[in-house]
Amino acid sequence: xxxxxxxxxxxxxxxxxxxxxxxxxxxxxxxxxxxxxxxxxxxxxxxxxxxxxxxxxxxxxxxxxxxxxxxxxxxxxxxxxxxxxxxxxxxxxxxxxxxxxxxxxxxxxxxxxxxxxxxxxxxxxxxxxxxxxxxxxxxxxxxxxxxxxxxxxxxxxxxxxxxxxxxxxxxxxxxxxxxxxxxxxxxxxxxxxxxxxxxxxxxxxxxxxxxxxxxxxxxxxxxxxx
Length: 226
Ligand code: SAH
Known about the structure:
Blueprint lengths: L8 E4 L19 E6 L16 E7 L11 E2 L10 E2 L12 E14 L2 E7 L8 E7 L2 H4 L17 E4 L8 H11 L15 E5 L2 E8 L2 E9 L4
Parallel strand pairs: 9-12
Antiparallel strand pairs: 1-2, 1-8, 2-7, 3-6, 3-8, 4-5, 6-7, 10-11, 11-12
């Protein structure tokens, strides 16, 4: 059986490349995004949603389609050393490349340019196609005591030091950068102190280095600037 699914909306996110995107929703609360609906979905389609604190966002890992999928994958939280069945993980490399994120609902706008939902805690690439949205229902779905397999604890955070001037950056952008880098975006197997990593975020190119449990932000400039 095969089905055709059409996107209902597109994500606008500060993350314009995959490197540096948090590995789950909620890990970077400062990651705000906007979900922009296709024109056929009007204000009526989101009526009542404003009463909910969180929404489930179902989407396509569109930037992983070309990478295919595998029966077993290496979750980053296992240090990239152990393999798990793809259906035991949240890996993008799954047969239908469907993703599911729980985002905090910040607001809904229904203006002349269409319906837009503002969210935070995003783990989504800019341009991600959204295929469905549903309200999160705590009394049904919150199961804090559930067994959590190999993902029982939240991963450790790095400390952040600024070794370049952060003057002129808004507090929101500074927090977004700090929370994103603190997630330790390095590929799981890498621990090379001299290595300089570069991530693009909200129109800025951020360079950092990681030694031990500390990440040093060593340069930040607008993307494209010399
Ligand atoms: N919360 C989702 C996503 C988990 S995987 C779920 O459980 O299904 C999260 C990773 O997906 C991010 O670190 C990022 O690298 C990747 N990602 C996010 N949006 C993507 C997209 N549109 N295409 C491909 N990969 C994406």
